Structure formats: structure tokens, C-alpha cells
Amino acid sequence: MRKVLGVYLILLLLPVGASFGTTGLVQGFLFDAENGVVLTGGSLGAAQNTNLATINQNQSSNNPYHFQTALQTENGLLFQNASAVGMNGSFGVAQDGSALGGQSLVTGSIPVLDQLLLANFGQDAARLGGIGAALGIQGLIVIQAQIAVSPYGADSNAQYLGIGQAISNAGGP
Q1: Of 117, 108, 120, 164, nearest in space to 145 by CA
Q2: Is residue 37 part of a domain?
Q3: By residue range, what is the domain housing residue 128?
């Protein structure tokens, strides 16, 4: 009798405990890039180097039992371009750029939507003697978006980060 009662209570209470279910999504990225050019010598010359990195992450979850839907996306582009042209001297560009991003989403009666974007960029251009120029351009564009829909309501979160840097060093004798 007790065994049957125990099985009956488990079957009775299982849907009640399951009705508080949640849906969770987590994603992240890391860009870490270095770029540069060096041009030395006596005769006329040119050098160029380019880095390009992209990210496109999409996640979705649908829980029909609890009427919950969650979507999130991260899209971004990191680009670096270094170039030098000149004669009778030394010309150079050094670039470094990094970006870290992530987001997490949990649905339920108290939804949690978190986003993080961090970036660090630096660059230098040098000209030692001669006639010519060194030019560096780099940038980052990242967009993050989240949406959670449940019987408790709808929540959304979005953020954008854009960075651009340019440096040059040009001249003659």
C-alpha cells in the first residue's frame, strides 16, 4: 500500500515540479589579432598587410511544454590594415587588437539576460629618414541581441560596440 501511494504521489507531483522549468543559452567569442609591416631599403618600395576576422553566432531554444522561446545572436567584424611606402629610410606599422564578448540567457518566471563586450586596441607608426609614409587603420564592430518570451512576458537585451583607429607618419628629408 505504501509503495503504491509513493508511486502515485511521484506521478502526481512530477508535472508540478516540471512546470517551473527553464531554458538556458550561453555563447561567447574572443578575437586576438596582431598585424604590421616593415619596409627598409634604399630604392622605392611598398608593403601592405591586412587581417580580417568575423563572427556570426546564433542560438535558439523552444520549450513547448512551458511555452518558452529564447533567441540570441552575436555578430562582429575585426579588421586591420597596415601599409608603408617610401625610399631611403625605414617605415613601419604595428597593430594589436583584442575583443572578448559573451552572453547568457535563462528563461523562466524571473528571466536573466546578461551581455559582456570588452575591447583593447593599440597601434604605432614609425618613419626613420627617407621619403615616404606609414599608415595603419583598424576597427571593430560587434552587435549582440537577445530575446526571451514566456507566459511571464517578453524580455530583450541588445548592445553594440564600435571602435575605429587610424595612425600615420609621413614626410621627407
Answers
A1: 117
A2: yes
A3: 22-171
